[in-house]
Amino acid sequence: MSDIYKTRKTLLLRIKDQYNDDAWAEFSEVYKRYIYAIIRRMNINAADADDIVQRIMMNLWKKLPTMTYDEQKSFRAFLSVVTKHEVLDFIDQGKRQVKRDQKAFDEDYLNSIRLPEIETIAKSEWQIYLTNRAFAIMAKDYDELAVEGFRMCLKGASVAEVAKYMEAEEKVVYNLRFRMKERFAKEINKLRQDLE
């Protein structure tokens, strides 16, 4: 991927060409793990989640090129709705299959799936996704020890604990925490603007 900050609008325009492999590879990199995380949080096992992600990506490949997109609405919200419908279709198909052939699926598994509120899951997974992506971007400019120290600060570790871990003076940790916190907030905001 040449530029991690390609705008959502630009990316959505580029994928209107179904055969633009670079655009679809970028789209997949940006959204596939997020979709998978939502599905797993909906109590779908890993193998089925992989299949559902592939179905969603194929449906998006077919539909997005002809779709007109309302820029005022969140693309993330659109993806969560698409994901929800695909999971519901999966469950319905599984139940129909069980009726046709009791041995094809484990009915207990299908009945055990409880669909929590999709938007709650989607928001939570999106925050995790943005946080991980921001850390990956920052890791290019900070050494691993500094990034881990900042993670510790975010998780509630004291400056003294972080300084001991980093084998640095506390004032160095205060300074690093301030700089990285500012950069982290900028990265999160940029990602939200570009990807939501």
Q: SSE order in H/E notation? A: HHHHHHHHH
| CATH homologous superfamily caption of the largest domain | RNA polymerase sigma factor, region 2, helix turn helix motif
Percent helix:
over 70%
Query: What's the overall average pLDDT, rounded?
Result: 80
Beta-strand share of residues: under 5%
The Cα radius of gyration reads 21 Å
Structural class based on helices, strands and sheet pairing: mainly alpha
Please tell me about this protein's structure.
Helix content is 73%, strand content 0%. Helix 2 packs across helix 6 and helix 7 crosses helix 9. It has two domains: 116 residues, Orthogonal Bundle (Rna Polymerase Sigma Factor, Chain: A), CATH 1.10.1740.10; 58 residues, no CATH class. It has 196 residues and is an all-alpha fold. It is built from nine helices and no strands.
Helix and strand topology:
Blueprint: H1 8-14, H2 21-41, H3 46-63, H4 75-100, H5 107-112, H6 118-138, H7 144-154, H8 159-166, H9 170-195
Helix pairs in contact: 2-3, 2-6, 3-4, 4-6, 6-9, 7-8, 7-9, 8-9
Domain RNA polymerase sigma-70 region: 30-96
GO molecular function, one term: DNA binding
Protein name: Probable ECF sigma factor
Provide a quick synopsis of the model.
The chain has 196 residues and is mainly alpha-helical. It has two domains: 1-116, RNA polymerase sigma factor, region 2, helix turn helix motif (Rna Polymerase Sigma Factor, Chain: A, Orthogonal Bundle); 139-196, no CATH class.
